[in-house]
């Protein structure tokens, strides 16, 4: 297993992209704890498509990512992350909405935990999950970044942005 990384300057600050055997397994902001993930050797050439697609996203030119992904996590987290990828660009869902899709409103806290463990920030859009009342709650990168991402995707609905 080969693990490589690169660092991308983005409107959110530096993002560390990590791949295992050619599949993106993490997009980390400076706030993310990296204790479980050793980023391996820096090889910028391994990330041409990811860097291009993230650049297009931040420029408002891309709505979906087309990258091989390999996030590591338990089966429940994987199910939550798959649901996150189905939330359309510019839209949001509540933790309860996702919990109901997984079988019951009682899963809301577990959905929140899985959302918080999402290793693929931006690419797997955990920023699109909001409180039941539509309020911006919890984001590993901070609520300012969450608001900025939501504004990028839907400026009419969300206030000021960082970029």
From TrEMBL:
Keywords: Cytoplasm, DNA damage, DNA repair, Methyltransferase, Transferase. InterPro entries: MethylDNA_cys_MeTrfase_AS, MethylDNA_cys_MeTrfase_DNA-bd, MethylDNA_cys_MeTrfase_DNAb, MethylG_MeTrfase_N, MGMT, MGMT_N_sf, WH-like_DNA-bd_sf. Its EC number is 2.1.1.63. It holds the Pfam family Methyltransf_1N. It catalyses: a 6-O-methyl-2'-deoxyguanosine in DNA + L-cysteinyl-[protein] = S-methyl-L-cysteinyl-[protein] + a 2'-deoxyguanosine in DNA; a 4-O-methyl-thymidine in DNA + L-cysteinyl-[protein] = a thymidine in DNA + S-methyl-L-cysteinyl-[protein]. GO terms for cellular component: cytoplasm. Gene3D superfamilies: Methylated DNA-protein cysteine methyltransferase domain, Winged helix-like DNA-binding domain superfamily/Winged helix DNA-binding domain. It comes from the Bacteria. One of its GO terms (biological process) is DNA alkylation repair. Residues 5-71 form the Methylguanine DNA methyltransferase ribonuclease-like domain. Belongs to the MGMT family. Involved in the cellular defense against the biological effects of O6-methylguanine (O6-MeG) and O4-methylthymine (O4-MeT) in DNA. Repairs the methylated nucleobase in DNA by stoichiometrically transferring the methyl group to a cysteine residue in the enzyme. This is a suicide reaction: the enzyme is irreversibly inactivated. This is Methylated-DNA--protein-cysteine methyltransferase. It comes from Auraticoccus cholistanensis.
């Amino acid at each position: 297993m080969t693990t490589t990384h690169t660092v991308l300057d983005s409107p959110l600050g530096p993002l560390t992209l990590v791949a295992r055997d050619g599949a993106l397994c993490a997009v980390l902001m400076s706030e993310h704890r990296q204790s479980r993930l050793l980023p391996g050797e820096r090889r910028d050439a391994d990330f041409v498509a990811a860097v291009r697609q993230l650049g297009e996203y931040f420029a408002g030119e891309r709505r979906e990512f087309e990258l091989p992904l390999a996030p590591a996590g338990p089966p429940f987290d994987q199910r939550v992350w798959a649901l996150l990828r189905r939330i359309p660009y510019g839209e949001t869902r509540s933790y309860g909405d996702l919990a109901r899709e997984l079988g019951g409103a009682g899963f809301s806290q577990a959905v929140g935990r899985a959302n918080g463990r999402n290793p693929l920030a931006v690419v797997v859009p955990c920023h699109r999950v909001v409180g039941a009342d539509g309020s911006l709650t919890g984001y590993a990168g901070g609520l300012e970044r969450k608001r900025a991402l939501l504004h990028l995707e839907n400026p009419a609905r969300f206030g000021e942005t960082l970029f």
